[in-house]
Amino acid sequence: MKGVFNKIISINLTNKSSETIEINDEVYEKFLGGRGLGVKLFTDRVHPKIEPLSPKNKLVFTIGPVTGTSVSTSGRMSLVTKSPLTGTIFYSNTGGMFGFSMKRCGIDGLIVSGKADKPCYIVINGESGVELKDASFLWGMNTEETYARLKEIEGDSVHTLEIGPAGENLVKIASIMNDAARAFGRGGVGAVFGSKNLKAIVVKKGKQKTEVHNPELLKSYSKSAFDKQKALPVTRAAFPLFGTAGVLHVTNNLGMLPIRNFQYGQHEKAHQTGGETIRKEIFLKSEACYACTIRCGRLTKAGKMKGKGPEYESVWALGANCEIFDLIKISQANYWCNMLGIDTISMGVTISCAMELQEKGLFPYKEVEFGNEDVLIDLVKQTAYKKGIGSELSEGSKRLAEKYGDAETAIQVKGLEIPAYDPRGAMGHALGYATSNRGGCHLTGYMAAMEIFNAPKRIPRFTISGKPDLLVLKQNQSAVEDSLVNCKFSGYALGFDFHARFVSAITGLDFNVTQLLKIGERIYNLERIFNIAAGFSNADDKLPERFEKVTFKEGLSKDRVVPVKEMLKGYYKVRSWDENGVPSKEKLQELGLSYAKD
């Protein structure tokens, strides 16, 4: 099979050893790479009941057959671990240049296990192999300082994954930063890094090139894909000009931009923080990941600070959802999240949860109130160091709300804070939140693409008929995109048949759409049975109660609630799961899977 190297490096930090694991073609044929390969490697090696911050947890970094090729947006890579925030199996995805550089080293991934006796960092050298080095001098540095220092030591051309103080302090919403700019953001994966005394991973690009079965055919497909991306307004103009924050005015106009911890769906001041305003007031230049023609990344300057972003989710979570519309303060809070290594979505939603608890008279810190932009940056810093109020915010919204006696104030699913699309505005997207294997995630099935942005086609956002079928399709597609590994934004313009063409031209195997969707279904079911073995059930496939009982009184999403229980019945049926959401033995046998054994 072309496009892969059949090799994974496994590093045990406890005994400072490493080994090369050979992966046979059959595994790639069933799981592709990226998320799929990571889930397979992880579930084969980690017991579902392990504690996420114990040495027994593993970090599995993987790339896919499409990574590092001429295919647009093919620079991404995947991470699979067990989340300290949710307790679920957790998959994450990042762009930039790290994935491409890893592929040039001639490996398909890296497994990190155990715990070092002192701070360390890993160097993957494409010329000389893997080395473990002392990182005591880096401990305590923020991500920008760490990145800069590692480039001084290891060479200016290296790329890095690093944690900041939040990961070192085991903050449950800590992220892993990628070249101090992009992130494995959600689920507290940075705390897993920190729990292993691992400060960073450095990759030094080698000279190993990806062997492609039919380069000319792949070049032709890539050109066609590029032309389609240039023909679609969102990938041709909207994202390049305004970044992801360019969609803020859309969700606000539709009455589904969460305001005041999801109490309202629109606000007259929201435009002050949208992509157009960012472009006008703080924009410096656009940036792209490897092989990306969309260039949605932003380099900005807010006041005296410079940094990356803010993205749509970040500018909303730290802004409108806290009823804060000061773009400078929001952007600076976003920069601090990146420097300290904190997930911006969970940070903002946890702050807004605290603000609503305070509004209800349950949270004792009066300064933590809606609209108070003066506390925003201090709350981010306190969270990273677990100081003062931050020690409580560092646990995420679910634990915070439970502590203060009002669990429903936490807007989360399975412990993961819901992002910037109010579920009352899009029923299929809402069902996606409830059934995501990693918790409240908008990218697992991303029904918003069709329900809101008409990509690749428009479907009615308030109907529930047919939504379970479409969501299952989108979730399976998403698992495949994460396994190839491709950016979700490319799917806005491309039909899923393009993915089949890409992977067939690269690997030399004849993958059709039906086969790819079966792979996506296999990945999704494997994640599901891991979660069941970890203690999750259909009782966790739910939304916060307000989305089923409380309506908006104005706007284009008014008078709507989410009939999630009704949709779940149809969803389980489409998935061939029983009424309790458990995959049938027949379905697992069909997919070549089995239940986890103690």
Set out the fold topology.
Blueprint: E1 7-12, E2 17-22, H1 25-31, H2 34-45, E3 59-62, E4 77-82, E5 89-94, H3 98-103, E6 109-113, E7 120-125, E8 129-134, H4 143-154, E9 159-162, H5 165-168, E10 176-178, E11 182-184, H6 189-195, E12 198-204, H7 215-231, H8 233-242, H9 248-253, H10 275-281, E13 283-287, E14 297-302, E15 305-308, H11 312-317, H12 327-340, H13 344-359, H14 376-385, H15 390-393, H16 397-403, E16 412-413, E17 416-417, H17 427-435, H18 448-451, H19 467-484, H20 490-493, H21 497-507, H22 513-534, H23 546-549, H24 564-575, H25 585-591
Parallel strand pairs: 1-6, 7-12
Antiparallel strand pairs: 1-2, 3-4, 3-6, 4-5, 7-8, 9-10, 9-12, 10-11, 13-14, 14-15, 16-17
Helix pairs in contact: 1-2, 2-19, 2-22, 7-21, 12-14, 13-16, 17-19, 19-22, 19-24
Key features?
single chain, 598 residues, alpha+beta, Aldehyde Ferredoxin Oxidoreductase,  A, domain 1, Aldehyde Ferredoxin Oxidoreductase Protein, subunit A, domain 2, Aldehyde Ferredoxin Oxidoreductase Protein, subunit A, domain 3, 25 helices, globular
Explain the overall architecture.
This protein has 598 residues and is an alpha+beta fold. It has three domains: 198 residues, Aldehyde Ferredoxin Oxidoreductase,  A, domain 1 (4-Layer Sandwich); 165 residues, Aldehyde Ferredoxin Oxidoreductase Protein, subunit A, domain 2 (Orthogonal Bundle), CATH 1.10.569; 169 residues, Aldehyde Ferredoxin Oxidoreductase Protein, subunit A, domain 3. It is built from 25 helices and 17 strands. Strands 2-1-6-3-4-5 form a six-stranded mixed sheet. The model has no long low-confidence stretch (mean pLDDT 96).
